[in-house]
UniProtKB/TrEMBL annotation:
It comes from Rhynchospora pubera. This is Glycerol-3-phosphate acyltransferase 3. The lineage of its organism: Eukaryota, Viridiplantae, Streptophyta, Embryophyta, Tracheophyta. InterPro entries: HAD_RAM2/GPAT1-8 (IPR056462), Plipid/glycerol_acylTrfase (IPR002123). Residues 220-322 form the Phospholipid/glycerol acyltransferase domain. Belongs to the GPAT/DAPAT family.
Amino acid sequence: MISFGGLKEEEVTRVGRAVLPKHLLEDVGMKGLEMVRCKMQPRGIVCVTRMPRVMVETFVREYVRGVEDVVGKEVKSVGGYYTGFVREGSVEGKLELHFGEFVGFGSSTMVSQHQLFPVCKDFHFVDEAEKRKWHALQRDKYAKPLVFHDGRLAFRPTPLAALAMYMWLPLGIILSLIRSLVFICLPQNTSVLIEAFLGMKTRINQCNFADANCGDNSGRLFICNHRTLLDPVYISVALNKQRISAVTYSVSRITELLSPIKTVRLTRNREEDKKRMEELLKHGDLVVCPEGTTCREPYLLRFSSLFAEVADEVHPVALTTKVGMFYGTSTGLFKFMDHIYFLMNPWPEYDVKFLGKMSTRMINGNCCTGFEAANHVQSEIGRVLGYGLTKLTRKDKYLMLAGNEGYV
């Protein structure tokens, strides 16, 4: 009742689709999943759970292949809002629609608690001591890659971890506000030192830095993968330059006002956006994130080829971030809170690596199109970071996580 009472049905469905699969995958034991998959051959299975069906259905259908149906508790709703009460007989009534032999999986403490186990022809259970010996399911063993997920928590919310988060929260809010003010109000040289004192870790790889940080030349185009809204700020800090700008799309007005560097909105009109970027390059350096949206996991989304039409040479930048408590990205209505959540982490980390400048007209001595140049830059950044390459886009992400096409 505490978890569901008063929540919209569509919002709970979104959480079950966009947030919970990531946490549930982290709690899967490889041995347990193998046991289930063995019983699934050659026929599919019906998954029965004591949890509300809406919480686990997406996870089970997409990450436990072969599941024909999910049977769980149904929570009552009135006018599109959950009441928190469970419909009586919702599990047993739905199971009557399925025929066949039942096989049960669970812990030894559940045997006497679940009314369905007595009807099982076969039953497999494991005690807590044995379960502690299991290895977590490795990412490469997932039924499908986990590229997108939403929600703010970057840790598995066990009781102790959740308690630690709630105890940190008041201090984290104050620390985030102080860190934000330091970024906004103080010169970059001073802010970097103070931010380090406040627990923020920044590493800059300068193996090919001479191309990106020599002289006072202006008009260089920096292309980076997109981790958080702070990507252009950290590139600016690494370059130690004030005269740098970034292009954005669908960012809140509050975020634009608080930005320590100049930001210019894109319109999604290709010709208009190209003119704006060319104009910005006439007045200084420009940072572009061609993925168009952030990705938390070690994958790169498809790079837009627009930057290849704007400049003959670009400077790729590979970025990685590490957070221990909160993600600094979201697809919800409160995107202006993204940087606040990132700065609320006890020890947020940013790694900035400048690659050598690359031509957008030639690849290995051969002429190339803008699309080929974009794919080449994506592959080089992916190679340096060890990230997987995808053809997914901002639209794919928002359709999956938020149910819209990314117009926030």
